[in-house]
Amino acid sequence: xxxxxxxxxxxxxxxxxxxxxxxxxxxxxxxxxxxxxxxxxxxxxxxxxxxxxxxxxxxxxxxxxxxxxxxxxxxxxxxxxxxxxxxxxxxxxxxxxxxxxxxxxxxxxxxxxxxxxxxxxxxxxxxxxxxxxxxxxxxxxxxxxxxxxxxxxxxxxxxxxxxxxxxxxxxxxxxxxxxxxxxxxxxxxxxxxxxxxxxxxxxxxxxxxxxxxxxxxxxxxxxxxxxxxxxxxxxxxxxxxxxxxxxxxxxxxxxxxxxxxxxxxxxxxxxxxxxxxxxxxxxxxxxxxxxxxxxxxxxxxxxxxxxxxxxxxxxxxxxxxxxxxxxxxxxxxxxxxxxxxxxxxxxxxxxxxxxxxxxxxxxxxxxxxxxxxxxxxxxxxxxxxxxxxxxxxxxxxxxxxxxxxxxxxxxxxxxxxxxxxxxxxxxxxxxxxxxxxxxxxxxxxxxxxxxxxxxxxxxxxxxxxxxxxxxxxxxx
Amino acid sequence: xxxxxxxxxxxxxxxxxxxxxxxxxxxxxxxxxxxxxxxxxxxxxxxxxxxxxxxxxxxxxxxxxxxxxxxxxxxxxxxxxxxxxxxxxxxxxxxxxxxxxxxxxxxxxxxxxxxxxxxxxxxxxxxxxxxxxxxxxxxx
Lengths: 476, 140
Hints:
The complex is a heterodimer. Chain A is mostly helical. Chain A is 73% helix and 0% strand. Chain A has 20 helices and no strands. Chain B is elongated and about 85 Å long. The termini of chain B are far apart. Helix content of chain B is 42%, strand content 18%. Chain B has helices at 10-40, 49-52, 74-87, 108-117, and strands at residues 62-67, 91-92, 100-104, 121-127, 130-134. Chains A and B meet through α4, α5, α9 and α18 of A and α1, α3 and β2 of B.
């Protein structure tokens, strides 16, 4: 049955590739396009196939026939291909293939190559570390087996009684209304494998960590050059807890991956002339975020508002960008709404939000508790030496003259942090317990995007300036 | 839109490279060190595996759970969630008012005493503190 699981991987990559090729902006090519595609294709494919799997569950009452499911699964890349072929516009602009080498005009060329070599060594060492770490905990951490993988087992094995996991009162503590991207991604492979091998959630968790790091690095490569790409990837060691999540198999890392992808695409869109394809890609990953965890819902809404704000004086542009984002997010909005309508009572944090709003807001001790938790986290979590090295890198780079992308990221992240703060303030009656068990993970959601924002403070290099590389006389 | 990009000066360029190299070396060191540590460390026993042995033993849709851990404690929640995960897809409720019950006790003696007190039949006992029991006094 491993062959069927491999076929499932190929179908997923096929869907991601077709979609990414269809939406690939015209000025994205060469090494940055390859690097970005390498990370975006699997996450787009995995996200879309997870929603597609839920459709299978609804249509067939969670039939466990692997071959029938594979046939259904293989329809998705075909449908995406047909839709992309039918909606393709003729006469696209020819790509400028002369301007595809990142860092060609960066100073200190030889040293730059050394940095890239060390960066590659880091990538290999990190991949090995993540794989070894995820192998050490086959079932993951508490939340993984008590909630995410438990739901995956029900979706893969329960057949007609699959609905119990989202409606039966005995599962009230497992956040029955949570979206299902992670469980359905795992369950999809378990149906194909005709069993529940722990290798599946382990691979998904390890892949999420590596893809999150790869994505931030690829965006940094495209927008700020190869030095920034290496620094962005290496900056993840500042908070080892993020990488250690590879062993725990929680949904927070995939969520952070979708956050970074969404903000990265929006950053590309606002910095590179605002082609609406960037915003459609951002919509797809923003939609995947809200299909991963409830926290993704305010995030996607905030990004949509920020996209509108970026072109507030040009209503037509704002409209096109917003529509592209919404169109990308639509499949996941439908999937999330469908599951939420089927689910039992909402999780406690949603249920409590909105009750006597003024009371917790006026309770000063709650503000103090949240803020002191955040400050303590900043004191305990970071490794200070790499943090200082990264700060040194950002300072040495200086502040660039294109800060729109940075502003967009900073605004989105600040508003998302504000939404988290409000959710804790109003929606968590057991605040101390909530902070102890999930407070740190809320920060991890934002961590890859924070690294990207810091990188975007820096200046652009010649190769990634809109309009292509400067003539020889323009480079110093 | 051919805006001349800002160029970093020679010194700041070298500084950037220096910081970036140091950071990447730190990353290599951390990753290699972490891998070696994990590789050398003995794998801990997986407490979840023991519950898998009871999987598929019960035909009832809903079964119960009994333990000597205090209700509301981490030990109670941990054991209960682990049973529910190990036996999925099976509805396990956190009380023993069911015909079939998973008994998860700290010792063999405690489990035996519990089964005797409830007049229960032991159907499967994968380890000394864990068993699937049937309570004939409760109708399915």
